[in-house]
Amino acid sequence: MDKLVIEGVSKAFDGRAVLKDINLTVRPGELVCLLGVSGGGKTTLFNIIAGLLKPDTGRVLIDGQDVTGRPGQVSYMMQKDLLLPFRTIEDNVALPLLLKGMNRQEARRRAGELFGEFGLAGTEKQYPAQLSGGMRQRAAFLRTWLFSQNVALLDEPFSALDPLTRRSVHRWYLDVMDRIHLTTCFITHDVDEAVLLSDRVCLLTGHPGSITHELTIAQPRPRPEDFNLSVEFLEYKRKILSIINGEKQAVK
Amino acid sequence: MKAALPALCAVALLLIFWELVCLSGLVPAYMLPSPVQVVQAMVNDRALLWEHATITLKEAAIGLVVGVVIGVAFAALMDSFEVLYKAVYPILVMTQTIPSVAIAPLLVLWFGYEMTPKIILVVLATFFPVTVGVLEGFRSADKDAIALLRSMGAGKWKIFRYLKAPSALPQFFSGLRIAAAYSVVGAVISEWLGGFGGLGVYMTRVKKAFAFDKMFAVIFLISALSLLLMRLVDVGERVCMPYRFLNTSSQKGRNDK
Fold first, then answer.
1. Nearest chain B Cα distance for residue A200, angstroms
2. Residues A126 and A98 in one domain
């Protein structure tokens, strides 16, 4: 059965249409990327999938269940890491467990077990302000993971990182992903990142936004270290860029 | 300590200047006592001053605690119910436009010369800065963080407990610092306008006796008590919000200034 299905979702704010008839189906364990220019409605779509916004039309299904407008069904990592400055890293990361009603001791213990795996060992008692951007991002990943709904939405999870850190966090993320078998949708406007990481790239274009093209990246994961230098990679990139440029021409 | 050095020097210079003016004989001693005379008066009258100070401190402390509880409760209610905010907030603002010297005698008429009217006046003076601060604090909670908690299935109460309440701590302490200063002054004014004990009563008595040195002594004492209370608030702030006082590399630039 399909893990996540989005059926005919449309949304307008104050009469201005933002999303128009979005249809998307994601299989279990798949890593799907939403690619598009800023302000194209990608985050709005995520907010709808996460149940924070109600779509004007259409539905969101997870495991065949209608979850439209019901928060708490997916793990959602937003653009900013949103670590709470007044909680230590372990208490930040354990927050989803506390919200589910687990007691503090148990929540800390459960979270603590994963600090090593997520490269956060030794940061338990520190505050977010004491961590580098890359470490904060890892903590945000761990918090998202501990919410442990098996669908994850990641809104530009790597954009706040500098290019070098981003590269190592990519590698680390794919590594963790393969081990924890998560169904993931993520947003980016970096074409390289989209091709490098995803099984399928969906292009969200136009005003109002709709998914105009889908591109399957056939290269199986884990991908070779130099995949981003291969001919196939460049071919995918060329294809995507030509679509985006075509759209821009059409607008002009 | 190093940061307080310029302020300490300025105060010391001011006191020396004052002492010199008095020594020079420009102003008659019975009108403006010198700092040394003030300290002497304070030492001589220390038993009586202490007795009155405990009364004032008790009124201020009880009033402050009640005022803070009421202030936080008002803020929480007004944050939760927009209607309440629109209805009650203007009234709260109005209570602050009434001069306390005008209500204090009324409170005495209604509640007698004992502690009750003093405590009520302190409550009236202290709840407002707390309410305003905490309300603003609740509203300063990161909108995206609220959305994040909602996406994790948190309801109103959990968002309040885990996000809004701790987000309001800095503003709470700002409000509390002002309220602490008001509490002592409020108690003194209230005593001044009718009572059996407290530094305000002591003040009216030494004023009638034209004991200017004692007058200054009690003024100094009131200032010191207010400063002490504010200092306690600072300590509480550091204990409750250790994350605000971290020495991190990213904040270094700010701290160096």
1. 25
2. yes
CATH number for the domain spanning A30: value is 3.40.50.300
Q: Determine the distance in angstroms separating the CA of A100 from the nearest CA of chain B, rounded to an integer.
A: 8
- Tokens 């959990």 belong to B158
Question: Among partner residues A71, A79, A86, which is closest to B153 by beta-carbon distance?
Answer: A71
Q: How many helices (H) and strands (E) does chain B have?
A: 13, 0
Q: Are residues A214 and A102 in the same domain?
A: no
Does residue B247 belong to the interface with chain A, where contact is any CB pair within 8 Å? no
Chain B residue at shortest CA distance from A132 = B250
CATH architecture under which domain B40-240 falls = Orthogonal Bundle (1.10)
Average of per-residue pLDDT values in chain B: 88
Contacts of A85 in chain B (CB under 8 A): 243
Assess whether pLDDT exceeds 70 at residue B209: yes
Angle at A169 between CA A164 and CA A170, to 5 degrees: 95
Cα A176 to Cα A154: distance, rounded to the nearest angstrom:
15
Facing residue for B151 by CB, picked from A50, A79, A129? A50
Q: What chain B residue is nearest to A130 in terms of C-alpha separation?
A: B248
Between CA A187 and CA A153 the distance in angstroms is 8
Cis peptide before B117 (omega within 30 of 0): no
Domain count, chain A: 2
Same domain, A29 and A1: yes
Three-state DSSP state, B33: coil
Check whether residue A220 and residue A174 sit in a common domain.
Answer: yes
Judge whether A121 and A115 are in contact, CB under 8 Å: yes
Whole-number pLDDT of residue B252: 39
Contact B147 A84 (CB under 8 A): no
Q: Please determine, for the modelled complex, whether the ipTM score is greater than 0.95.
A: no
Long-range contact pairs involving A217-223 (C-beta distance under 8 Å, separation at least 24): A221/A31, A221/A174, A221/A178, A222/A174, A222/A175, A222/A178, A223/A174, A223/A196
Query: What is the mean pLDDT, run by run of 10 residues, along chain A of 252 residues?
Result: 86 87 88 84 89 90 86 86 90 90 88 83 88 85 82 85 80 74 85 88 84 84 80 88 76 55
> And the tokens for B4?
């307080």
Domain parsing of chain B, residue ranges: 40-240
Cross-chain CB nearest to A82 (options B144, B243, B251): B144
Q: CB-based contacts of B257: which residues, under 8 Å, 6+ apart?
A: none
